[in-house]
Design a protein that fits this description.
Elements: H1 7-32, H2 35-55, H3 59-79, H4 84-105, H5 113-118, H6 126-145, H7 147-155, H8 157-162, H9 167-189, H10 194-205, H11 212-237, H12 241-264
Helix pairs in contact: 1-6, 1-9, 1-10, 1-11, 2-3, 2-4, 2-9, 2-10, 3-4, 3-9, 6-9, 7-9, 10-11, 10-12, 11-12
């Protein structure tokens, strides 16, 4: 397709894809107060880069493997009764330190960590687009298929048990989906900013929606607006796309929050 020959079109498609998946899952992050989860998995991706360089495997595969392992570790530790915010805080900063140390020790040419920390969506290729949109499709199908389980176990564990659901399965599924989204989003917004794309659109959507389904749709729409607006802002200001995307998302959040307070006053 000639259209995909343009790096700006590929960047826009990548940003929209990540924004859709992050907006959908970000609602559960906000509802469950799991803001540190994105940090833990994103920071762990740096360790995945180091392992990929050491063993000569594709970087994306290393990031996916380590991010998935981090998701399973978080699920296992919180399932044992440990405080989620404490576990995620320790793992997030520990994974970042270990990852940076491992990259420094990796033999061979130095890797440009800035692209992984802040994103480099303008270098997205066709294979990257296939990976991102394949991930979006998987997230969409699994969330739609398990919406009742995910939502009920988020609202009340006791209610989930009463309805014959296993809330642990919902938590495990959510952890793995979030790990996957974080892994494929690294190239778009970077390891340091992916949590913002998970949280800010969902938090802003609270001012627009009255139902969980409405909030999820609004979060996806705000995420897409931030992705497209961030790309335009980055091109105009000659800045990084990841930081510009987060800047637009914050601006939308501020406007919607102010409007919501005026409406309630």
């Amino acid at each position: 397709m000639m259209l995909l020959d343009s790096f700006l079109v590929r960047a826009a498609l990548a940003g929209v894809g990540v924004a859709l998946a992050a907006g959908l899952l970000g609602c559960f992050v906000v509802w469950r107060r799991m803001a540190y989860f994105g940090d833990a998995t994103a920071h762990a991706s740096i360790l995945g880069i180091a392992l990929s360089l050491a063993f000569g495997t594709p970087v994306t595969l290393g990031i996916l493997a380590v991010a998935g392992a981090m998701g399973l570790l978080v699920f296992a530790l919180t399932d044992r009764g440990l405080a989620a915010d404490t576990v995620l805080g320790v793992l997030a900063h520990g994974a970042l330190g270990l990852g940076l140390f491992a990259v420094a020790l990796t033999p061979g040419p130095r890797v440009n960590l800035e692209a992984f920390l802040f994103g480099d969506v303008l270098t997205v290729g066709r294979d990257d687009l296939a990976l991102i949109w394949g991930g979006v499709a998987i997230v969409g199908v699994l969330v739609w298929w398990n919406w009742g389980l995910l939502l009920t176990s988020t609202l009340s564990v006791d209610l989930a048990h009463a309805q014959g659901m296993d809330p642990r399965r919902g938590s495990l599924l959510l952890s793995l989906l979030l790990a996957g989204v974080v892994a494929v989003a690294i190239q778009v917004v970077g390891a340091l900013l992916i949590t913002a794309l998970l949280i800010i659109p969902a938090a802003a959507a609270r001012n627009l929606a009255r139902t969980p389904e409405g909030m999820a749709l609004a979060a996806c729409a705000i995420g897409v607006l931030a992705a497209m607006g961030g790309l335009e802002l980055a091109v105009t200001a000659d800045s990084g796309v990841g930081p510009a995307t987060v800047t637009v998302a914050v601006a939308v959040f501020a406007v919607l929050t102010a409007a919501g307070r005026l409406r309630r006053s």
